[in-house]
Design a protein that fits this description.
Elements lengths: L1 H4 L7 H12 L10 E4 L13 E6 L2 E6 L11 E6 L2 H18 L6 H8 L1 H10 L1 H15 L8 H4 L21
Parallel strand pairs: 1-2
Antiparallel strand pairs: 2-3, 3-4
Length: 176
């Protein structure tokens, strides 16, 4: 809920969540990807069981990766801490691109990280700034061709008549 809605919120988690959604919608991955942004360490959005989770703290943002809910629950691994929303977006895009490039088809982020190791992901995303920027650039380049807001057409009125009431049914044999 973030500082806009919660007395414990430390950052604008709602605004950051919207930014992450807008930069990632329409993207293709080896399997479904879930993201969450929690406004404070109380973690109401359950960011620490998502494929990529952001936990807002007083001094910035903690990035967590490789979580999984459902039947086989896996808590995320702490990736790193960053100071700005721009860094969150860059790390997020780089992480998703690395996952897209290296994971196997239908492999969620949790088993992918267990297979390649968190050290490998940290080396590529956190420790290699130039490599992170290159991964982010590749992700953003791919998004140029698929950045369609899934709700914009609907909000503009497209398919507005999709659920119009049906005409009353008549049975010709009963009409004289």
């Amino acid at each position: 809920m973030g500082k806009e809605w919660c007395r414990f919120g430390t950052q604008d988690s709602t605004g950051l969540g919207i930014k992450l959604e807008q930069v990632t919608w329409g993207s293709w991955h080896p399997h479904k990807v879930k993201l969450a942004v929690s406004g404070c360490p109380r973690n109401c959005a359950e960011a620490t069981i998502k494929d990529l989770g952001v936990v807002c703290v007083e001094s910035g943002y903690e990035l967590h990766v490789g979580g999984n809910g459902g039947i086989k629950i896996r808590a995320t691994d702490f990736l790193c801490k960053v100071n700005t929303e721009q860094e969150v977006v860059e790390h997020c895009c780089a992480y998703l691109q690395l996952y897209r490039e290296e994971a196997r088809y239908l492999e969620r982020t949790a088993p992918w990280i267990e297979r390649v190791g968190l050290t490998h992901v940290r080396e590529r995303i956190v420790e290699d700034a130039a490599g992170r920027k290159a991964l982010c650039t590749r992700f953003l380049e791919s998004q140029k061709y698929s950045q369609t807001d899934p709700w914009a057409e609907r909000a503009a009125g497209k398919q507005a008549d999709e659920y119009l009431p049906l005409e009353p049914a008549t049975r010709p044999e009963l009409v004289s």
